[in-house]
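Regression test case RT-17, inverse folding.

Input:
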C-alpha cells in the first residue's frame, strides 16, 4: 500500500552519486527522492555528448570496480554483451559466472541498451615513440629508454628503496619514494605539472596515497612476470586481486557513459522518484542543525522554486554550498571553502580520416583507448580514440577516426578563454607537430568545456576538515560524490558514498564518518594486505598526472 505522506529527500545533482542515491532510496526505504539538476543532462562529467552523430565521453569512464555491489548495480541496469557464437565470461565476487547462467545478456547488434566488454589498451607517447601504460619494465621499454637512461632509473630506484621516507610531505616525495627520482623526472613530474598547473611539491602526498596506492616498480615487475605466463583466451573481466591500472578489460555502455545514467533516470522515475532538470539550487534553508528546504531557479527563465524535504543530498561544489546556506558559516569555514581549487577541463573533438601513427598493418589506426602525451612543448595532455571505446560512438567507424583531445586548465587561463575555432586549430596543430596527424586531415570538430572537473589537493585543502565538520553537524544533510565532498573519487566511489548515505538513513545512523572512509578503506588501500591496487573508473592519470590510472 502506498504511503500517504512519504518522507522526502531532495538531491542536488543528477550525476552518479545523485542518481544512485535516488535509486537506492526507492528500493531500500520509504523515502521519495526528488533530484534537482542544473543542466538538462544526466551523469555530470559521466555524460555523453553527441556531435553530428559522433559521441564524446568527457574524461573517459571505464566501468569496473573492486566493489562487488557496484558491479552488481551496473549489471542490473544494463545487460552484458553476448554475440552469437561467442561466450563472454565475467569473474567477480571471487566467483566465475557465464552469461548462459546468472548474468543477463544482449546482442549489441540487436539493441542499444547493453554493456560491451572492451579490451584495455593505453600507451604513453614520448620522444616520438610509444611506451607501455602503466610503465612496465619490459624489454621494449628498456630499449626505448636506452641503456644509459635505464641504468640511471634502476640505480635511482634502488637508492630510494634503500632510503625510504616514512611520511612524504608532498606528491614529489611520494613519487620519488615509490619510483625513484629518475623515473619520476622522466614520466611523472612534467605531466603532473601540466595536468595540475602547480609544482608537485605543492600537491599533498595524500593525493598519491589515494590515486596510486599499490602501483610501483615492484608491481610493474610482478605484472611483467605474470604476463609471461599462459593466458586465458576468453573475454573474462577480473576485478579483484589485480592492480586496477593493469586490468586488461572493462565494461562500457554501447553509446557511452551517459547512456547508463539515462537508463538510471528512467528507472528512478518508473519507481516513483522525480528528476527535474534546469533546477539550479541557490539556497539551503536551515533550522538549527537541520536543513528544511532548498531554493532553486530555472537558469534559463529565472523562475523560482522551493523544495521542502526530510533529507538532503548535496553533490554541488563545496565552495558553492558554503555560500548557499542561509546561516553564514564561521569565518574559518568560509575562508577554507573560498580557497579550495578545482582544475577545469576542455575536450576538443576532431574527426579525421586516419592517423599518422598506426599499427603494423598500416591501417591508419591504433588500438589504444587513451594515449598519454608526454611530449614537451605541447599543451595537450591526453588523447582519446573513441572508436576503441565503442565503435558505436562513431557515425562511420570504418572510414573515420573520432578523437578527443584533453586539455587541463583554470577558468582564468587564456586557454579556457580561447574561441572554439582557435582551440580546434590548436589541437590539430599540436597533433601534427608531434607526428600523430597528417596536415589537413581534420574534417570536423567540436569543443566542450567542463568547469570544476577535478577537485585539487592543494590550496586550502589541508584545512578541509573544518568544512567537513561544519556540514556533518546537519543531521539530515549528506555530502556525497566528487565535488560534494571535494574528494577525488572515481565514479564507483561516488556511487558508494550515495549507497552508504542511504543505508544510514534506512538504519537511523547519524554519524557520517563511514561516508568519508570510502576510497580510503582497506578494500582500496590494498597495500595494507600486500595486494596491488590503484582503483579507477577510467580517467585518473590525466586527472592525477601520476600514472595511477587509466
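Golden output:
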Amino acid at each position: 500500500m502506498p504511503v500517504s505522506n512519504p518522507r522526502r529527500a531532495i538531491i542536488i545533482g543528477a550525476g552518479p552519486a545523485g542518481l544512485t542515491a535516488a535509486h537506492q532510496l526507492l528500493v531500500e526505504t520509504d523515502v521519495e527522492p526528488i533530484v534537482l539538476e542544473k543542466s538538462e543532462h544526466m551523469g555530470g562529467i559521466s555524460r555523453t555528448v553527441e556531435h553530428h552523430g559522433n559521441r564524446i565521453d568527457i574524461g573517459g569512464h571505464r566501468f569496473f570496480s573492486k566493489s562487488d555491489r557496484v558491479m552488481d548495480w551496473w549489471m542490473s541496469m544494463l545487460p552484458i554483451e553476448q554475440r552469437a557464437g561467442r561466450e563472454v565470461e565475467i569473474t567477480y565476487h571471487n566467483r566465475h559466472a557465464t552469461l548462459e547462467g546468472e548474468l543477463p545478456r544482449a546482442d549489441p547488434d540487436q539493441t542499444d541498451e547493453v554493456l560491451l566488454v572492451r579490451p584495455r589498451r593505453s600507451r604513453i607517447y614520448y620522444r616520438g615513440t610509444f611506451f607501455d601504460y602503466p610503465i612496465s619494465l619490459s624489454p621494449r621499454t628498456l630499449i626505448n629508454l636506452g641503456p644509459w637512461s635505464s641504468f640511471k632509473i634502476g640505480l635511482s630506484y634502488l637508492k630510494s628503496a634503500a632510503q625510504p621516507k616514512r611520511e612524504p610531505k608532498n606528491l614529489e616525495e611520494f613519487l620519488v619514494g615509490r619510483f625513484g627520482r629518475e623515473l619520476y623526472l622522466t614520466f611523472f613530474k612534467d605531466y603532473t605539472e601540466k595536468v595540475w598547473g602547480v609544482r608537485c611539491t605543492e600537491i599533498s602526498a595524500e593525493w598519491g596515497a589515494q590515486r596510486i596506492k599499490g602501483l610501483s616498480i615492484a608491481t610493474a615487475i610482478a605484472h611483467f612476470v605474470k604476463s609471461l605466463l599462459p593466458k586465458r583466451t576468453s573475454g573474462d573481466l577480473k576485478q579483484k586481486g589485480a592492480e586496477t591500472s593493469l586490468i586488461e578489460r572493462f565494461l562500457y555502455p554501447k553509446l557511452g557513459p551517459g547512456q547508463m545514467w539515462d537508463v538510471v533516470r528512467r528507472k528512478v522515475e518508473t519507481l516513483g522518484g522525480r528528476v527535474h532538470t534546469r533546477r539550479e539550487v541557490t539556497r539551503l534553508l536551515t533550522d538549527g542543525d537541520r536543513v528544511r528546504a532548498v531554493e532553486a531557479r530555472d537558469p534559463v527563465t529565472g523562475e523560482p522554486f522551493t523544495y521542502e524535504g526530510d533529507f538532503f543530498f548535496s553533490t554541488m561544489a563545496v565552495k558553492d554550498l558554503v555560500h548557499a546556506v542561509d546561516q553564514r558559516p564561521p569565518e574559518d569555514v568560509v575562508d577554507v571553502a573560498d580557497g579550495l581549487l578545482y582544475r577545469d577541463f576542455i575536450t576538443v573533438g576532431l574527426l579525421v580520416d586516419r592517423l599518422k601513427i598506426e599499427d603494423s598493418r598500416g591501417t591508419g589506426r591504433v588500438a589504444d583507448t587513451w594515449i598519454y602525451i608526454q611530449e614537451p612543448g605541447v599543451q595537450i595532455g591526453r588523447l582519446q580514440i573513441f572508436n576503441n571505446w565503442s565503435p558505436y560512438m562513431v557515425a562511420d567507424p570504418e572510414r573515420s577516426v573520432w578523437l578527443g583531445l584533453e586539455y587541463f586548465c583554470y577558468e582564468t587561463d587564456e586557454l579556457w578563454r580561447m574561441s572554439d575555432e582557435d582551440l580546434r586549430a590548436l589541437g590539430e596543430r599540436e597533433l601534427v607537430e608531434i607526428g600523430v596527424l597528417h596536415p589537413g586531415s581534420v574534417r570536423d570538430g567540436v569543443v566542450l568545456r567542463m568547469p570544476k572537473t577535478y577537485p585539487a589537493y592543494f590550496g586550502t585543502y589541508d584545512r578541509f576538515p573544518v568544512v567537513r565538520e561544519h556540514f556533518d553537524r546537519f543531521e539530515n544533510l549528506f555530502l556525497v560524490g566528487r565535488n560534494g565532498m571535494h574528494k577525488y573519487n572515481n565514479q564507483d566511489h561516488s556511487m558508494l558514498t550515495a549507497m552508504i548515505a542511504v543505508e544510514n538513513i534506512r538504519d537511523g545512523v547519524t554519524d557520517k564518518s563511514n561516508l568519508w572512509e570510502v576510497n580510503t578503506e582497506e578494500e582500496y588501500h590494498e597495500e595494507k594486505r600486500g595486494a596491488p591496487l590503484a582503483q579507477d573508473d577510467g580517467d585518473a592519470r590525466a586527472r592525477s598526472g601520476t600514472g595511477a590510472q587509466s
